[in-house]
Amino acid sequence: MRPKIYLFGDSITEESFGDGGWGASLSHHFCRTVDVVLRGYSGYNTRWAVKVAERIFPPVESGGAPPLAFTVFFGANDACLPDRYSAFQHVPLHEYKQNLHSIISFFKKRWPEIVILLITPPPIDEDARLRYDSNTLALYIFVPFFLNTSYGHPYIENPSGLPERTNEAAGAYAQACISVAKECGCPVVDLWIKMQECPDWKQAYLSDGLHLTQAGNRIVFEEVVKELKEKGISVENLPVDLPHIANIDPQDPLKAFQDC
Amino acid sequence: MRPKIYLFGDSITEESFGDGGWGASLSHHFCRTVDVVLRGYSGYNTRWAVKVAERIFPPVESGGAPPLAFTVFFGANDACLPDRYSAFQHVPLHEYKQNLHSIISFFKKRWPEIVILLITPPPIDEDARLRYDSNTLALYIFVPFFLNTSYGHPYIENPSGLPERTNEAAGAYAQACISVAKECGCPVVDLWIKMQECPDWKQAYLSDGLHLTQAGNRIVFEEVVKELKEKGISVENLPVDLPHIANIDPQDPLKAFQDC
């Protein structure tokens, strides 16, 4: 059985197998060595993640290998402001830290040897969030078909004209994420800082002020690969599943499969 | 546990999580409902696939759910001509059919209820294959670092000036694949025919005369989704893993997680 790397997070994880997505890129990068397993839940915060972790990650059945690593990528929803229209997703900063601790403890108790890689929320382009709200509102007015869910779309009511997220708040949650990583001895990708190193980060990396463009996805992919490598998890270090074509003798191909 | 769809095949499967790849697109399409598991092996033919199937697909451990479906996508390497430079990958047509039967029998014996979706090899652009050989040869002459494998790159010796694959041969293997599917009652994607319905198929769908462009990947994705849907496997029919954000009550979010 191939080892697994689980991607646990919110919409930025759930969407990571779209075109140029960081999850798909990880799968491609680790093909023949690791199964990258998608466990992204759009809109979720750490409070809900704590509630569902046990159900998402049952103990490995007998004979199954423990996972190699987890990415834990929450905070973008926790950082929704408590007095704006996405307040129901907000989690206070101190609880966000507690919840990250709980998630890490849960994984470490179940699989003591695994690598848990935290990823901070990305920076926020507040103007783009407001433009996105307007566009979404227009879409939902003209295409009421999409409202056919139990509670409608939870994002569309924004009479305040203020964004539901700010870059400052996202930065505070990113800093909290880094603190937790340090406290727990976990590696961390500081996406909030890393993206803002590029002067054009709003256009280059964010598609709607929050979610990632292909270039934004590329950064997450590269940073995750780098951090995993520092923990000894790399294509070079992992056994390849079945003989590589370059290691099959053209004169006697079946020799390579004698032990299969 | 989420149900699984396995992608079993050669390089066109192994590379299917690259940008715009059909495997990544399936993962994205089925996110929150199915785990799409990559089992692609570049250069492999059905003879080798039969040898390794038992090792790749061990019986599901106790408590594990049987897979939902398999895609079986071989033939592009079997169809290498027996008197050209990739002859070591060639498998005679009658054996190709036998091997597909063996693979289907193996899956059906292990998991009687699963859907096995065959995919024929794509058409071949012979001129592009020759251009690709020349380019690869140049690459390997100027970058000898890449030759650092046990047997070197097996594709580079082509003094004949003739392509290792022809579209006619690929068509014969595609037809054989369809026959096997009919004999076994399996759904099948006739990629060889489907792609050639577009007058510009060589440029539109093939990157090197054999492997797929993003548009070519798109066709595989759409055809696989269509065939799976006809067998009752669709996002609409599958349970969603944990409550969707639109079904979480903003007034009382935790209510949605009472049973988790």
From TrEMBL, chains A, B:
InterPro entries: GDSL (IPR001087), Iah1-like (IPR045136), SGNH_hydro_sf (IPR036514). It holds the Pfam family Lipase_GDSL. GO terms for molecular function: hydrolase activity, acting on ester bonds. Keywords: Hydrolase, Lipid degradation, Lipid metabolism. One of its GO terms (biological process) is lipid catabolic process. SUPFAM superfamilies: SGNH hydrolase. The keyword Metal-binding does not apply. The keyword Hydrolase applies. Belongs to the 'GDSL' lipolytic enzyme family. This is SGNH hydrolase-type esterase domain-containing protein. It comes from Populus alba x Populus x berolinensis.
